[in-house]
Amino acid sequence: DAKTTQPNSMESNEEEPVHLPCNHSTISGTDYIHWYRQLPSQGPEYVIHGLTSNVNNRMASLAIAEDRKSSTLILHRATLRDAAVYYCILRAINTGTASKLTFGTGTRLQVTL
Amino acid sequence: DTGVSQDPRHKITKRGQNVTFRCDPISEHNRLYWYRQTLGQGPEFLTYFQNEAQLEKSRLLSDRFSAERPKGSFSTLEIQRTEQGDSAMYLCASGTVLSGANVLTFGAGSRLTVL
Question: Can you tell me the distance from the alpha carbon of B10 to that of B20, in angstroms, rounded to the nearest whole number?
Fold first, then answer.
């Protein structure tokens, strides 16, 4: 799997937007960009994924650069409950039986009042 | 359906003992994964099942580790002759395809402490 690079940590104030960056300069044309987050004492939780176009869901938005070498997870209005480790993961389409996700160390997001 | 269930949530054992963890995935998901996570690190892949077939095993899965999914439903992960280095959170996930991509739903994990 292609490698991703994320900042180790970020801070945000509550009720402000948060932009979590991810660099993936070696991404291939068949790689999906996945984001998961892990709240304290819980398993990881799926957030969003995309291939080429920007994506929105109830949790977040995913902005993908035109060259796909970077992406940004956008939390529109951070709350204390969004404090977590956020993982950016690439996974190829049609990987057959090898469909695991490979996690890095992610970005630890702190949200303060 | 209440998601992925793991049992027990916490296990403390002495070095050399055997332990077994159980995972009940989301019923309609045919893919099941085991991961291990140590403090400050992201989850590390251990093994993957599609239905009852174990299709991939990580080199992290030494011969003391064995995983089964006998009827393609729940799964067990057994660690024999535990060592202190086995202390970790063991995470189970089940997978389905969403908008063309494989998406995983994780359980809350089983935390193992080996004394």
Answer: 11
Residue-wise burial string across A12-24, b where 16 or more C-beta atoms lie within 10 A, e elsewhere:
beeeeebebebbb
A100 φψ region: left (φ > 0), alpha (ψ -120 to 50), beta (else):
beta
Distance CA A107, CA B93 (A): 21
Compare all CA atoms of chain A with the CA of B41 and give the residue at the minimum distance.
Answer: A105
Q: Are B14 and B114 in contact (CB under 8 A)?
A: yes
List chain A residues with CB under 8 Å of B49: none
Question: In angstroms, what separates the C-alpha of A61 from chain B's closest C-alpha?
Answer: 15
Does residue A12 register a pLDDT over 80? yes
Place of tokens 């996570």: B37
Examine the pLDDT at A101 and tell me if it is beyond 80: yes
Residue listed under structure tokens 């977040």? A60
Q: Give residue B78's pLDDT.
A: 97
User: Which residues in chain A are closer than 8 Å to B31, comparing Cβ atoms?
Assistant: 99
Cβ-based neighbour number of residue B29 at 10 Å: 17
Q: Which residues lie below 8 Å from residue A47, measured CB to CB, with a gap of 6+?
A: A35, A36, A37, A59, A60, A73, A86
The answer to whether B105 contacts A46, with C-beta atoms less than 8 Å apart, is yes
